[in-house]
Design brief:
six-stranded antiparallel barrel, Thrombin, subunit H, single chain, mainly beta
């Protein structure tokens, strides 16, 4: 897991650097692939609209299928991108005040305005690596002011072989590849993530792309959040995650990058875009 970028000096030093930070997922068995459904879906052009740049990471304005125009909007990024630093193993940040700002991008990657958080609705690096900020603006206000709609969170487990695009608001750069497979446990330093997405080698993400939405090219929905990669072949160390299977077998894939699934997030969000960790189907770690 790459450490978040800090300041212009790191912007210069990390141009062309290795992988990104870390994000984790909810561990559930993958359902039967929806190939028959996906084949009928016309691919959508993936662009930067709805993505955001943080001070050290990337992110995106997201909604659930049930989010309403008048709901306060949400921004998705990584837990390791929180302004308060990396949450420790077992730590959950829940409904904590925040005034963090985000630069909203349009389709071409130009910054069109600044959004501001009212709180960190949820954040953790346990089981998954996510942060979700609640904004002071509603979806309707953002669309009315900037003409930009939020990206929708897919509520289905991603499918192996799916064509995806990692969209970095920090670098204003995209990475296209496929879902290579899924990792039972991804271990990096003190943290362990469940059911992570492994990219094919074409997605050579770098520092600062942490928190980028991973978009299904066919549906335009967010299926994961970009977070880490093995930089130099070390085993299970910081910046060098390792794969652990159900039998404890460890595999190291130098130069391969990963994301954390996001399909389980929507189940934890109720009316008014309020996180409720006791909702049926919500398996995110609790404080």
């Amino acid at each position: 897991m790459k450490k978040p970028l800090v300041g212009a000096l790191f912007t210069v030093l990390l141009l062309g650097a290795g992988t990104l930070p870390a994000v984790a997922a909810t561990g559930q068995d993958a359902p039967t692939p929806r190939a028959d459904v996906r084949a009928k879906v016309k691919p959508k052009a993936v662009n930067f609209a709805g993505t955001v740049a943080l001070s050290n990471c990337s992110g995106s304005v997201v909604r659930t299928p049930d989010s309403q125009p008048g709901d306060p909007a949400l921004v998705l990024s990584n837990g390791h991108c929180l302004e308060t630093g990396f949450p420790g193993p077992g730590e959950v940040v829940f409904n904590q005040p925040s005034t963090r700002s985000f630069t909203l991008l349009n389709a071409s990657g130009s910054g069109v305005g600044t959004l501001r958080a009212s709180k960190v609705a949820y954040g953790t690096m346990t089981d998954t690596d996510i942060s979700v900020y609640q904004l002071t603006s509603t979806y309707a206000q953002i669309e009315s002011t900037y003409g930009i709609k939020a990206l929708e969170l897919d509520t289905a487990h991603p499918v192996q072989g799916t064509a995806i695009t990692v969209v970095s608001g920090y670098w204003k750069r995209t990475y296209s590849c496929n879902v290579d497979g899924f990792v039972y446990r991804l271990k990096e330093g003190a943290w362990t993530w469940k059911d992570s997405v492994r990219y094919t080698s074409a997605c050579q993400t770098i520092g600062g792309t942490s928190g980028s939405p991973v978009v299904d090219n066919a549906t335009g929905k967010v299926v994961a959040v970009n977070n880490t990669g093995n930089e130099d072949g070390q085993q299970c160390t910081d910046n060098n995650p390792c794969e652990v299977d159900e039998n404890g077998q460890v595999t190291v894939r130098e130069g391969i990058n990963y994301a954390q699934e996001t399909y389980g997030i929507a189940a934890c969000i109720g009316t008014g875009n309020v996180f409720d960790l006791n909702r049926t189907g919500c398996v995110l770690p609790k404080p």
